[in-house]
Amino acid sequence: MWDISTGFAVIAIIMLVGEIISSKTGGKLPQMFIVATLFLFGYWTFLPKDILTISGLSVVAEICKIFILIHVGSMFNVKSLIKDWRVVVTTLCAIVGILALVLTIGTVIFGKDMAIIAAAPLTGGGMAAMIMNEGAIAIGKSALGVVAFVIFIMQGFVGFPVTAFFLRKEGERLVEEIRNNPNLIKESSTKSEGEQATSKKKIYEYVPTKICTPTYYLTVMGVLGCLGLIIFKLLNGAIDRSIVMIIVGVAASQFGLIPPNPMNKSDSAGILNLALFASFMSGFADTTPASIGQMVIVVFGLLIIATVGILLFSIPVGKKFGYSTWMASAIGLNCFLGFPYNYNLTNEAVDVVAKTEEEKTYLTEQMLPKMIIGSVVAVTLVSCIVAGVLVKML
After folding, report:
1. What is the DSSP letter of 27?
2. Cis amide bond preceding 121, omega within 30
3. Please, how many CA atoms are within 13 Å of residue 287, restricted to the half-sphere of its CB?
4. Cα separation of 335 and 309, whole Å?
5. DSSP 323
6. How far is CA 379 from its chain centroid?
């Protein structure tokens, strides 16, 4: 019964169901939570344990990991991060808070290995979870690696409601401010956004349009991937492969060799993301209901510790930069969200609080850029680097 087409079709259906339910609930039930639940049910009933190998997606996922890390590096915009350095510092302090508390209190309560495996995904997204999972498998502790994915999947259940609360409070504060001083809206709209920098033409812009096909972008990422692996081998593994790939992506983007988001331009993001997300689920193949039950208790304990760390470290720093307690907290909590969830939650808060179009515009301008930058720093970049460092400590 099980062959490559059946395996692929079943996995694609599971991913689609997760996407639809997540969309219908406005992200309150994250796609990865639905997908993980369906995979767990499947593994415990009818799915073969090696369905990812049968479907051929495990091989695609290997290529995908390299491409996504280069893609992540390409999104690193040095100029915009320098401009929004206060947001960057606040986010980095939130990450320091997570690491400080999880690696101390978490170690005392749950043990050293559990604290280390949890710390990286708590600072950001799925790639950090994948790096830690691979590290755990490499040392024969695959059960520990599953914890990284459970954390990644469960983050939203703490992050969504808590961040929504802080964003709503910040919206209420800003609305009260502009109703007491209507000139703030005028000042904001009069602000000259017209500093359009005449930036030099990038190298990739000289490539003729007819050559810039999906095959071209796949080729460029493939060559950069090879370059990254050569550098990794020359370094004798002194720096984790994921960090090397991100650095290659950052360098290629800064020197103008590739545009931001090259994977999207390759028309392959859909299949590559499907393969990557599905590969997260391989760690669940050997779990039991009892082991998952124990894991969920540990994960919620670690999430609470990490949340306290975020608030303790981001609030005082954010307040020094002139942010309110609410805004500093929301920026720090980007570690549990990332795009597009932070985008949706910010818009939701604005819609609930603002009464006029002018108020909506003002609130969006004040809140949304900070949230997006925070997620770029935490989820997109720093979490992968943290994972690359911590995986060596397992």
Report:
1. T
2. no
3. 28
4. 11
5. -
6. 3
> Residue written as tokens 């080729």?
219
- The one-letter amino acid at 388: G
Report how far residue 113's alpha carbon sits from residue 127's, in angstroms, rounded to the nearest whole number. 19
Measured between alpha carbons, how far is 42 from 266 in angstroms, rounded to an integer? 32
54-76 b/e (C-beta count within 10 Å ≥ 16 → b): bbebbebbebbbbbbbbbbbbeb
| CA–CA separation, 28 and 23 (whole Å) | 9
Who wins on pLDDT, 281 or 301?
A: 301
**What distance in Å separates the CA atoms of residue 229 and residue 247, rounded to the nearest whole number?**
12
* pLDDT given for residue 340 in this prediction: 60
Q: DSSP states of 335-394 as a string? A: GG--TTHHHHHHHHHHHHH--SHHHHHHHHHHHHHHHHHHHIIIIIIIHHHHHHHHGGG-
pLDDT single digits (tens) 261-282: 788 788 877 787 788 778 777 7
Q: Are 102 and 122 a contacting pair, CB within 8 Å?
A: yes
Phi, psi (deg, nearest 5) at residue 255? -85, 5
- Distance CA(364)–CA(372), nearest Å, equals 11
Q: Residue 108 CA to chain centroid, in angstroms? A: 27
Q: Angle of helix 289-320 relative to helix 325-332, nearest 10 degrees?
A: 140
Within a 10 A sphere around the Cβ of 149, how many other Cβ atoms? 24
Q: Check: CB of residue 133 under 8 Å from CB of residue 145.
A: yes
Looking up tokens 């969006």 gives 364
Chain centre distance of CA 236? 28
d(CA 385, CA 365): 30
Q: Which tokens in the block code for residue 238?
A: 């002194």
Angle at alpha carbon of residue 227, lines to 226 and 228, rounded to 5°: 90
Residues 283, 287, 291, 297, Cα dihedral to 10°: 40
What is the pTM assigned to this prediction? 0.70
For residue 74, pLDDT beyond 50? yes
Cα distance between residue 113 and residue 294, in whole Å: 16
SS3 content of the chain, % helix, strand, coil (to 5): 80, 0, 20
Angle (CA) 385 72 301, round 5°: 50
Give the separation between CA 180 and CA 249, rounded to whole angstroms: 47
Which pLDDT value is given to residue 380? 67
